[in-house]
Design brief:
binds adenosine monophosphate; alpha+beta; 15 helices; 16 strands; elongated; Rossmann fold; about 20% strand; BirA Bifunctional Protein, domain 2; single chain
C-alpha cells in the first residue's frame, strides 16, 4: 500500500456507490433545463490562460492564486478551466452564434481551482450551469433564477435561501468603488492584511470578508443602491417585482459581490444553513459587458449561473433526497458444462427484454454463487443445474424471502414477464 500512488489532494474519485445520486441530479437538471428551452453545450477543459484573465479578472483570487496554469510543449500558456462561463462566451464568439441571435445553453463538468481543500471545497469540483445571451430585460434574470427554483422543487430541497443584489452598470460600479475606497482608507486600521491587499486591487471584495473587525466595519459601508444609475435601479426594481409575482422569496444582501469581475447588475446566490462554512450551492448573475470584453464586436447582454454539484449532492444526502440504487433483476447461478451455454444465451434473451442480469463467471459451488448474488443486490437468482437441464426448466429463487418456483426455459422471458407484472 505504502508504495501505491494516491489521488491528488482535493481531487476526489467518484466511486460507483456515490454516483447514483449524481446521476439522479444530472437527469433531473437536464430535464428542467430542457423544459426552459436550454440546449447542452460541451467544451474543452483546457483554454488559453488569457481567456480567464480577461474575463474573471486579473485581480481576483481565482486568477491571481488559484488557477492550474502551465506552458504546453508549444510554449502556449494554458489553464485548466476554473469555471464555465468564459469558455461558453469564447465558443459563442468563435462559432458566430451571437449574431442577432438569442442563445440559451447549459453545461456540466469538472472545474479546477487550487484552493485549500476542506469539506465542500475541492481542487477538482463539478458545476452544472446555464448561460443565456441576447436579452437585456429583467425577465431573463428572473428566468434563470426560476430555473434554479424549479430544480430545487424537482429535487425536493427545502433548505435553500435566495440572496440577491445589484452591482449596477460599469459607471455606477466605478463610482461605488471610489466611495468604498474612500471609506476603507478612512478606516484602514480596522482592515486585515487580506483586505488591505484587496483595497488596492478589488475593493468590492472587502465587502464579503470573513474577518470580524472588517465585518463590523462593513456594517456602515456605503451601499451600492446610492450609486446606481437610473436604468440599473429600475432593472433591479423590476427583478424584485417579477420575483414577487412568481412568489419566489429572496433577501437582499448588500454585501453580495461575487468573486468574479464580469458581473454587472443582478447577482444572486443560493445558500443553505445545512452545509456549515461552505454554504453557497449556486451563484450567478448578469454579465452584460463580458462578450465585448472577450472580443465581441457588439455588446451582447447575458446572464447565467453555476451550481456546485458536490455541495448540492451533500445537501441532497442531508435532506435524504437521494433515491436508493435500483436493484439488479437477475443473477444466473449455474453448474459447469452445458448449463453455462444455456446460461449465456438465457442472459442475452433476458437483456433483450429489458431486464438486467449478471451471469456468474467461474466454477464455484451453488452456495458461493448464491452468496455472490446476494452481495450484488439482486432480486432473483436463476438456477440452472443438472435437474433443470433435464427438464428444460429454470428455477427462480427470490432472494428476499427464499421463495422458489420453476419456469419453462423455452418460454422463460414471457413467463417471467407475466410473473413480474402480476407481482408489481
Ligand atoms: P463560482 O463559480 O465561484 O460562482 O461558484 C459557483 C458555485 O460553485 C458555488 O456556489 C459553489 O457551490 C461551487 N464551488 C465553487 N468553488 C468550489 C470549490 N472549490 N469546491 C466545491 N465547490 C465549489
Amino acid at each position: 500500500m505504502s508504495n501505491s500512488i494516491q489521488a491528488i489532494r482535493g481531487m476526489n474519485d467518484q466511486l460507483p456507490g456515490d454516483l447514483i445520486c449524481w446521476q439522479q441530479l444530472e437527469k433531473i437538471a437536464a430535464e428542467v433545463f430542457r423544459l426552459f428551452g436550454y440546449q447542452e453545450i460541451r467544451l474543452p477543459v483546457v483554454e488559453k490562460t488569457e481567456l480567464f484573465a480577461r474575463s474573471i479578472g486579473q485581480a481576483t483570487d481565482i486568477v491571481e492564486k488559484e488557477m492550474y496554469s502551465f506552458q504546453d510543449r508549444n510554449g502556449d500558456q494554458l489553464s485548466l478551466r476554473p469555471e464555465g462561463t468564459a469558455g461558453v462566451v469564447r465558443a459563442m464568439l468563435q462559432h458566430g452564434l451571437l449574431h442577432n441571435a438569442i442563445q440559451r445553453v447549459w453545461y456540466t463538468g469538472p472545474m479546477f481551482r487550487h484552493e485549500r481543500p476542506q469539506k465542500g471545497r475541492y481542487r477538482q469540483f463539478h458545476q452544472i450551469g446555464v448561460e443565456a445571451f441576447g436579452m437585456t430585460e429583467a425577465e431573463l434574470d428572473v428566468e434563470i433564477i426560476s430555473m434554479t427554483c424549479q430544480l430545487w422543487k424537482q429535487l425536493g430541497l427545502t433548505s435553500t435561501v435566495l440572496e440577491i443584489n445589484t452591482l449596477g452598470a460599469s459607471d455606477s460600479r466605478l463610482a461605488y468603488r471610489s466611495a468604498l475606497v474612500e471609506y476603507y482608507q478612512a478606516n484602514r486600521n480596522s482592515l486585515d492584511e487580506d483586505s488591505l491587499r484587496r483595497l488596492e486591487k478589488n475593493p468590492l471584495r472587502i465587502l464579503d470578508s470573513k474577518n470580524e473587525a472588517v465585518i463590523e466595519l462593513n456594517k456602515n459601508a456605503p451601499d451600492i443602491l446610492e450609486y446606481l444609475d437610473d436604468e440599473s435601479s429600475q432593472h433591479f426594481q423590476h427583478v424584485k417585482e417579477l420575483l414577487d409575482n412568481l412568489g419566489i422569496p429572496y433577501v437582499r444582501n448588500p454585501k453580495l459581490v461575487r468573486g468574479l469581475d464580469y458581473y454587472s447588475r443582478t447577482v444572486f446566490e443560493w445558500t443553505t444553513d445545512k452545509l456549515g462554512a461552505q454554504s453557497a450551492i449556486c451563484g450567478g448573475g448578469r454579465y452584460d459587458e463580458l462578450v465585448e470584453k472577450l472580443g465581441g464586436k457588439k455588446r451582447v447582454p447575458a446572464a447565467g449561473f453555476a451550481i456546485g454539484m458536490e455541495r448540492l449532492i451533500e445537501l441532497m444526502k442531508i435532506e435524504q433526497l437521494c433515491q436508493p440504487e435500483k436493484r439488479q433483476d437477475f443473477y444466473i447461478v449455474q453448474t459447469p458444462g452445458a448449463a453455462r451455454e444455456t446460461g449465456l444465451s438465457l442472459a442475452m434473451q433476458i437483456r433483450d427484454a429489458g431486464y438486467s442480469v449478471t451471469a456468474n463467471v467461474g466454477d464455484t459451488s451453488f452456495k458461493s454463487q448464491l452468496k455472490k448474488a446476494d452481495r450484488c443486490n439482486v432480486r432473483m437468482a436463476l438456477i440452472i443445474g443438472e435437474n433443470e437441464l433435464e427438464t428444460s426448466s429454470i428455477t427462480v429463487k427470490q432472494l428476499d424471502d427464499g421463495e422458489q418456483f420453476s419456469l419453462s426455459s423455452e418460454n422463460f422471458v414471457a413467463e417471467v414477464n407475466k410473473y413480474l407484472t402480476t407481482k408489481e
